[in-house]
């Protein structure tokens, strides 16, 4: 288990944002600070957490845990599709190939779940039996496994807007993607999802659903952004899923849904002022992100020393102190030190 006192100690030192002036044009996404250059992007994955399309605060070590997991999955899926990662100069930072983003988010779902307005359960509960072109049987319950995994694409909303789940025909009508390319992306997305299901199952997890983003670089389809992370996916514990489902209980969640559920309990579902995340919640969320990381760690041979950044005796939370950052950045592509990082008070 993750030592909670370490997470607690890290609360005032989370990576909130960066402000480099000489690294390219800054595009600040909800989670990543992207420094855009001609051919590449330097992506700093911060500790920010977003839910319902709003940034809510930070979770200790989340940025590093995410990059670590995505890196592992990029490697695991490289035989299915090329990806944008070129280098990883620091635990929180990638240098990626700049792609021409395809304006669709490829969402793959294996279960009837979710609490955001765009989620399949929200629609099903309201009586919809066709979700983004997929027919759904009557009589299903929340968190039930779908007969087959399905693809439910959504639009890539402009900054600040919410994504919208739509049928592929609607995407074609809007000119977001053409049918031929969409078919190709659908095939790749399904392969990526099935690989995720298999690998997760080997480690006692259910890979519930996920979202993929693709771009084009030199005429080739590239998987970009992140892949199969707990920010872009849902993961549940497999061992007690059935028992809990039968009893109508929530599955044990190892993803952002844990935070979403907490927010919903406070009455926040994306509208109005979000509640301030409590320290207890931030620590608990950190613990889950890190626990979730561990099985990729095992699978990646961290214990055998093959991975540079996460030796087994020095888990993710030890490498993010100030001296590590100062020491690492000068030799990487971000020459400035980390004095500019804004920490939460
Ligand atoms: N290789 C790439 N080339 C171009 N754009 C990319 C690449 N990889 C990721 N992106 C884009 O960079 C941004 C990453 O930042 P982040 O993930 O924080 O954004 P987000 O909060 O998901 O989305 P938004 O842009 O709506 O804030 C996303 O808009 C993503 O689509
Ligand atoms: Mg993103």
Oligomer: single chain
Helices and strands, in N-to-C order?
HEEEEEHEEEHEEEEHHEEEHHHH
Bound compounds, please?
Answer: adenosine-5'-triphosphate, magnesium ion
Tell the overall outline. Answer: globular
Look up the CATH topology of the largest domain.
Answer: D-amino Acid Aminotransferase, Chain A, domain 1
* Helix percent band: 25-40%
Indicate how many domains the architecture comprises: 2
The low-confidence runs, each spanning 5 or more residues with pLDDT under 50, are: 301-345
The radius of gyration computed from the alpha-carbon positions, rounded to a whole number of angstroms, is 20 Å
Relative strand content? 15-25%
Sheet bearing the most strands, described?
A: 6 strands, antiparallel
Number of strands: 15
Kindly, what is the distance between the CA atoms of the first and last residues, rounded to a whole number of angstroms? 28 Å
Question: So how many helices?
Answer: 9
Shape-level CATH architecture of the largest domain:
2-Layer Sandwich
Summarize the structure in words:
The chain is of the alpha+beta class and 345 residues long. The chain folds into two domains: 4-99 and 276-340, Phosphorylase Kinase, domain 1, CATH 3.30.200.20; 100-264, D-amino Acid Aminotransferase, Chain A, domain 1 (2-Layer Sandwich), CATH 3.30.470. It has nine helices and 15 strands. It has helices at 4-10, 62-76, 120-125, 168-174, 179-202, 241-247, 257-265, 279-299, 322-328; strands at 25-28, 32-36, 40-45, 48-51, 54-58, 85-90, 93-97, 100-112, 130-131, 134-135, 144-151, 154-155, 205-217, 220-224, 233-237. The strands form four sheets. Strands 8, 11, 12, 13, 14 and 15 form a six-stranded antiparallel beta sheet that branches. Strands 1-2-3-7-6 form a five-stranded antiparallel beta sheet. A hairpin with a 2-residue loop joins strand 4 and strand 5. Helix 2 packs parallel to helix 8. The protein is globular and about 55 Å long. It starts with a helix and ends in a 17-residue tail after the last helix. Mean pLDDT is 83; it is low at 301-345. It binds adenosine-5'-triphosphate (ATP) and magnesium ion. Adenosine-5'-triphosphate binds next to strand 2, strand 7 and strand 13. Magnesium ion (MG) binds next to loops.
């Amino acid at each position: 288990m993750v030592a909670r006192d370490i997470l607690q100690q890290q609360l005032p030192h989370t990576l909130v944002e960066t402000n480099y002036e000489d690294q390219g044009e800054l595009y600040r996404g909800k989670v990543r600070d992207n420094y855009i250059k001609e051919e590449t992007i330097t992506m700093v994955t911060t500790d920010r957490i977003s839910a319902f399309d709003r940034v809510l605060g930070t979770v200790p070590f989340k940025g590093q845990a995410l990059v670590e997991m995505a890196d592992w999955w990029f490697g695991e899926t490289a035989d299915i599709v090329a990806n944008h990662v070129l280098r990883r100069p620091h635990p929180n930072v990638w240098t990626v190939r700049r792609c021409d983003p395809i304006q669709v988010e490829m969402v793959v779902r294996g279960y009837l779940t979710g609490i955001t307005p765009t989620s399949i359960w929200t629609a099903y509960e309201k009586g919809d039996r066709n979700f983004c072109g997929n027919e759904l049987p009557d009589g299903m319950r929340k968190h039930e496994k779908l007969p087959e995994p399905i693809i439910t694409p959504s639009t890539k909303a402009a900054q600040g807007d919410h994504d919208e789940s739509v049928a592929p025909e609607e995407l074609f009508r809007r000119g977001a993607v053409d049918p031929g390319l969409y078919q190709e992306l659908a095939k790749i997305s399904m392969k990526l999802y099935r690989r995720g299901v298999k690998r997760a199952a080997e480690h006692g997890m259910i890979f519930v659903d996920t979202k993929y983003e693709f771009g084009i670089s030199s005429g080739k389809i590239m998987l970009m952004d992140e892949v199969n992370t707990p920010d872009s996916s849902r993961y549940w514990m497999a061992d007690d899923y059935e028992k809990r489902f039968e009893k109508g209980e929530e599955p044990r969640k190892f993803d952002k849904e844990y935070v979403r559920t907490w927010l919903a309990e406070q009455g926040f579902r994306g509208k109005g002022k979000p509640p301030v995340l409590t320290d207890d919640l931030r620590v608990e969320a950190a613990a889950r992100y890190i626990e979730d990381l561990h099985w990729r760690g095992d699978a990646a041979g961290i214990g055998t020393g093959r991975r540079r950044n996460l030796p087994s005796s020095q888990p993710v939370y030890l490498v993010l102190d100030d001296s590590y950052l100062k020491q690492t950045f000068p030799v990487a592509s971000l020459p400035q030190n980390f004095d500019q990082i804004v920490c939460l008070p």
